[in-house]
Amino acid sequence: MMFLRYAIYRFITMLLTLWVVSILIFVIINLPPGDYLSNQIAELRATGQAEGVAKAEFLRTEYALDRPIWEQYLIWVGMAPGPQGWYGLIQGNFGWSFEFDRPVSEVVGDALWLTVLVNLAAVLFVYMVALPLGVIAAAKSETWVDYTAAFVGYLGLATPNFLLALMLFYYGNKYFDLPIGGLMAPEFEGEPMSWEKVRSILVHLIVPTFVIGTSGAAAMMQRLRANMLDELSKPYVETAKAKGLGPSKLLAKYPLRMAFNPFVADIGNLLPAMVSGSVLVSVVLGLQTIGPSLLTALKSQDQFLAGFVLMFVALLTLIGTMISDLLLVLLDPRIRYGARGS
Amino acid sequence: MKKLPDGRYVDEAPWSDDADLSALERSDMDAPNWVLVWRKFKRHKLGLISGIFLLLSYLMLPIAGFIAPYTPNERSADYLYAPPQSINFWHEGDFIGPYVYPTTATADLVNYRWTYETDTTRPMPLQFFCEGDRYNLFGFIPSDTHLFCAPEGATVFLWGSDRLGRDVFSRILYGAQLSLTVGLIGITVSFALGIFFGSIAGYFGGKTDWVINRAIEILRSLPELPLWLALSAAVPSNWGPVAVFFIISIILGILDWPGLARAVRSKFLSLREEEYVRAAEMMGAKPGRVIRRHLLPNFMSHLIASATLSIPAMILGETALSFLGLGLRAPAVSWGVMLNDAQNLASIEIYPWTAIPMLPIIFVVLAFNFLGDGLRASLDPYKS
Lengths: 342, 384
Fold this sequence. Notes:
The structure holds two protein chains of two kinds.
Chain A lengths: L1 H28 L6 H12 L2 H13 L6 H9 L18 E2 L4 E2 H5 L2 H29 L4 H15 L2 H16 L18 H38 L2 H9 L3 H7 L1 H11 L1 H19 L4 H10 L3 H29 L11
Helix pairs in contact in A: 1-15, 2-3, 6-7, 6-9, 6-13, 7-9, 8-9, 8-13, 9-12, 9-13, 13-14, 13-15, 14-15
Chain B lengths: L1 E2 L5 E2 L22 H11 L1 H16 L3 H4 L20 E4 L2 E7 L2 E6 L4 E6 L5 E2 L1 E11 L3 E9 L18 H37 L1 H15 L3 H10 L7 H14 L2 H15 L3 H8 L4 H37 L11 H5 L5 H6 L7 H21 L6
Antiparallel strand pairs in B: 1-2, 3-4, 4-7, 5-6, 8-9
Helix pairs in contact in B: 1-13, 2-13, 4-5, 4-7, 4-8, 4-10, 5-8, 8-10, 9-10, 10-13
């Protein structure tokens, strides 16, 4: 019951955060002077195409771009009636993409799920790599195992993601025959789900997952190692050793259990970095996630598309952080329920 | 020292009334903090080497134009995508000093690329302190003397040339001027914001603390890169390279302060309860003075160490933004702008040297990480 109350509290704070974030994002996408349509109108005027101007003017009123900025915001979010009535983000209308001349929901389409998939895969990768490596590095601290792990980790931190992506793609294709570009073989695009398609997606996921996950895994591994070392120097470990507990059981039973909590809590730091990385890597590798659409939208001031993508990315990280907070409460009974600071 | 039969130790030296009992056993026991820190830092070899490397890199920046044989946008139209050349010393067994072999380009119309023939019969010695293109030493002294340049009729592309026939080595030196300072300006912005918000949140507490804390949480939960992208997309395209450079570094700093502010805040929360703070307050010191004179100096060094650790993120951020075409733009030269050319698989396969700017990035980022680690480990000299 207490947990349920905490979960509800956490959910409400997430919604409030999301609301503040939406204001922030709306301000940011409106920072550039002018908007897509006014630029288009100016261009059409300059080339003397009168009928195009009329259409653009119509779209301007249709999407309330001629109103004051705060009204535009309320209409965009769906907290005030626009030209089509109450129809904003809250009501499930993601807006119109001027660049593609289609609704935003159609433009992004499958990309949303693929974005979630890529990020989930990367998070799983981080945990699967960082957990064993961090524990081994701590258990064998200051031996060659530790140093090698640290070296690889540092290299992962220091190499720019996009270059790692390019290199891995090139060599992966050359030596392991991994596919280049995209998230699935072209013949599966737009096809219904099938085993073949799932297999194709999985093979295509290898390189992106690796690239997005490396820096996160490196940081995570270092932190787990430090936590483990702290725990290993405590008296209870000595007692366990004196009792004659075997080395693997000694590690797994108490110290790992203790070091694991910060590991779960860390996802709040990890996720924003991963989502950032996935946007960048998607652009370089041409993955069909929302990264590339964000870039084109930002470059052409396609504000509703850009706004929606930014909102989605923020939502993704907020939900991830919320889940990690809830998991932490379940995992660690010492953490108190209720508001922080109470 | 003598041992008595009952096991006690007695000093044999005669007792003197003049001996100063409060004198230190070792003269360096009361050495100032920075000496102790430096002594400990010296033992962190990796951090020391990294520090020296970074120091040299930054010292190189103002004289980059002198070291580089070419200027960044100087084109050699006959040498597009020329491969790296080596500088040799011995020709057919004889030492003739540093020289290069001349190369000639031929168009390979089958594979549609340039191939380069090296003429190994004609060694051409390098020229030193020679005249080349004009550049500004320290940014304002016009000069045309270069440390070394190519002999007449040959080229010296140490790391090859790019799509437009520009020397990659020279461009990396020039690119360092922007890529390395982006981090410094960004960290200054982030430092100022972080300390300001962190200290007022921690010192005043209450509502101010609540508001700032929520802002920190929100900013920390957002992915940086998309926001960086969105903010830099708002930079007007008609701005000059210098203005764009400054605004980009400020953008990089704006999203980085929450982490620092959080550290400052938690430190302040505990420090503001100390007696000396209360004493200062009772003597009528204003909050600004208490924060600046009594609280901040306490952990400035820790802040500097953590700042060192967040510079690499900014350098990588600039690289990523420029790489995606939303950061610095040509004719400005930065490592990210250069890597923009290496964006496709074709150039990695055929012209791998266009990806060389990756190496300085990796080295600098690693060096900052090691330096930060070393600083952090040595800042508490009393802890072993």
